Amino acid sequence: MREEICFSSEDQQFIDRAINFCQQMGERAVLMLIGSRAAGFTDTWSDLDLCIIGDKRHLSNEDRDTYEQSWQLFVDRGDFEAHWSFYDEGDLQAWLKTYPDEMMWVIANSRVLYGCSSTAEELKHRYCLYPPAVAERKLKWMFGKYYFSQRGPLAMAARNKVETAFVAVGNVIEYLCKICCVADKRPFPYEKWVVEAAKQTQLGAMVYPSIQRAVSGIGDFLDPPTDCNWRDWTPVKELRGTLPIVQNGLKELGWVGDWIDDPNAVYFDETVRRPAP
After folding, report:
1. In this structure, what CATH number is given to the domain that contains residue 220?
2. Considering 3, 140, 149, 168, which has the largest number of Cβ atoms within 10 A of its Cβ?
3. Cα–chain-centroid distance for residue 35?
4. Last residue of a domain, one of 100, 127, 154
């Protein structure tokens, strides 16, 4: 069971403003808490992120014009620490049918604060998981990106291209974490929470210790050890060492196919030839 969330008086005042707006957006309108606080990743930096789903026909003419420009209506409290976004239910469903990763994650982890809870529950039921074919397509593409990043780009550390090596470490970790989520057929969040989301998955529990050791040993790029080959520098060794863990983990989760054992082929067949799914 999720913990009860407490709001400051200032936040509650903004929520009350959002409720007032929600009440005007039709009988199926719903106000939801989204983002890190809804997902349970709260820290002292967490803002108040709200989402209102309703019927755009109830918008004022001015708000309707704004909405039609960006397909959302964004309202900030004025301090960048509390805001809500309004989406028309029909427009949002049309978007979710394209399986946008981050928005699917937002909806899947949302918490209803006011209004028609069935609206939120129906969206969660339909879009909290990828269909198997969609998940496999995304998984193959990301597996190729992950494999490529932990090969050539990571090796740039040995050529004294430290900045490039740092970029490669970030790329490997990012795609590794996204693989962990998609392997469970679950969407992943925006980058700042992708590691936390991955840690909650079965595959993430397997690879996270390697990620920790790689980050802890990042100093090897700045002050390279002289008593070992560059392949044994901690970030390189640990991140490249995740490949067999990922391959075995995918099989344990029920994924099958030659692409798991031939990441080089999947990189050229899927990642290079196709846009990001």
Report:
1. 1.20.120
2. 168
3. 11
4. 127
